[in-house]
Amino acid sequence: MFSWVDRCHGLPFCRTLTVLYQDDVGGLEVETTKGVFIPVVPIPGTVVINIGDIMQRWTSDLLRSTVHAVTFGAKERNEKARQSIAFFLHPDDEYMVQCLDGGNKYPPISGKDYLREKMFKSFTKYFGENE
Predict the structure, then answer these.
(1) Which residues make beta-bridge pairs with 35?
(2) Which candidate in 77, 89, 96, 124 could, as Cys together with 16 as Cys, close a disulfide (CB 3.0–4.6 Å)?
(3) Where are the beta strands (DSSP E) in 40-103?
């Protein structure tokens, strides 16, 4: 079991997807379907694609959003500078996000309202609704 000092805890990703360029230091972990975090080992010349909540919604859960964490790991690894470059993709504010298979698993919602909803849930989880 990791503590807060060892890991920035698991975070769902509310955007569409993330393109991540990792260096050789690593530290990214993803959660398996069994709830276990496993390392994403950096492979030179490759990128990591994290599926986000909106992509999960668009695909009616065919693709699962990546719950991820960043570990600080061994002291010798932390003595090296870490560089990662991330590109986050999210729909325009007015764009209506709806299931692409024509189903109704999730109701349509604008990109702006979706992000507002996710941010509200995230902040109230930690600070309460009256903050």
Answers:
(1) none
(2) 89
(3) 48-51, 68-71, 84-89, 96-97
Q: Look up residue 54 and give its DSSP letter.
A: H
The residues, any chain, with a CB within 8 Å of residue 89's CB and separated by 6 or more, are 15, 16, 17, 18, 19, 52
pTM of the predicted structure, to 2 decimals? 0.73
The residue among 77, 86, 78, 90 whose CA lies nearest residue 118 is 90
Task: List C-alpha distances in Å: 62 to 29, 41, 43, 56, 80.
Answer: 21, 25, 26, 7, 38
Question: How far is residue 11 CA from its own chain's centroid?
Answer: 6
Report the chain's C-alpha Rg in angstroms: 17
Q: How many CB atoms lie within 10 A of CB 122?
A: 13
Percent over 90 (pLDDT), the chain: 25
